[in-house]
């Protein structure tokens, strides 16, 4: 769960979510927020981790990896692969490990017991690499002595023993979340296939490798648009769509707009 370096940095800034309905305002509609995560729906992430990265209005494009996606909308959570941003993520990672090591050494069972409550921010081990990451407690299972958590910088869920959880101090909660939210432009699911299957295949495809994000339209407050619209390519030359195989071979999504508009050489439509 670490990040790699890549491209430029001035294409991003940080936005503060000051209200309880921040998630609904940040996404196309309140129902689109990661349906498997009650923490996203309830706004628990923004309540405790109020800063998130935002793509600047003048941004043109950058390389990124996929973090997660919405199950019924063409909305993606992506992590830019640019040098300064990668350094910030690595710095956060080092701070989290240091704080967790200190707290795990100092804290006893009684000191930790009060934090095992749904909605509480924490530092939680990731079961695969055993390192600590920022998280939120989603559910407490006292019978199994376990905690269900959502890793807030990766939007992945895990089930851990209580001994693998410690407090997340305020200074770590004020560091921005390490992803941006975007909407795919120019595509629509094939109506003959289940939407979950369509976006599941899209997720699998985009998770295989990094992609180039070309920003087509930035948010316009006056027109009520609140997410950047993007097209994803395999390379910076913008000649091949990152999801071209879904269009050509699997017939899972349709390409809706002209090739000329987005500089695509051939969409076979």
N-end to C-end Cα span = 38 Å
Proportion of residues in helical segments: 25-40%
Q: Helix- and strand-based class?
A: alpha+beta
Radius of gyration from CA coordinates: 19 Å
> Which strand order do you get reading across the main beta sheet?
3-4-10-13-12
Summarize the structure in words:
This protein is an alpha+beta fold and 269 residues long. The protein has helices at residues 22-26, 38-41, 44-48, 83-106, 109-113, 170-173, 195-207, 244-248, 259-262, and strands at residues 12-16, 51-55, 61-69, 75-80, 121-125, 132-141, 146-151, 156-161, 165-167, 180-184, 187-189, 211-217, 229-233, 253-255. The strands form 4 sheets. A 5-stranded mixed β-barrel has the order 3-4-10-13-12. The radius of gyration is 19 Å and the shape is globular. The protein starts with 11 loop residues before the first strand and ends in a 7-residue tail after the last helix. Residues 2-9, 19-42 and 257-269 have low confidence and may be disordered.
Question: What is the compact description of this entry?
Answer:
The protein contains 9 helices and 14 strands. It is α+β, with helices and mostly antiparallel strands and 269 residues long.
Write the layout of secondary structure elements.
Layout: E1 12-16, H1 22-26, H2 38-41, H3 44-48, E2 51-55, E3 61-69, E4 75-80, H4 83-106, H5 109-113, E5 121-125, E6 132-141, E7 146-151, E8 156-161, E9 165-167, H6 170-173, E10 180-184, E11 187-189, H7 195-207, E12 211-217, E13 229-233, H8 244-248, E14 253-255, H9 259-262
Parallel strand pairs: 10-13
Antiparallel strand pairs: 1-2, 3-4, 3-12, 4-10, 5-6, 5-9, 6-7, 7-8, 11-14, 12-13
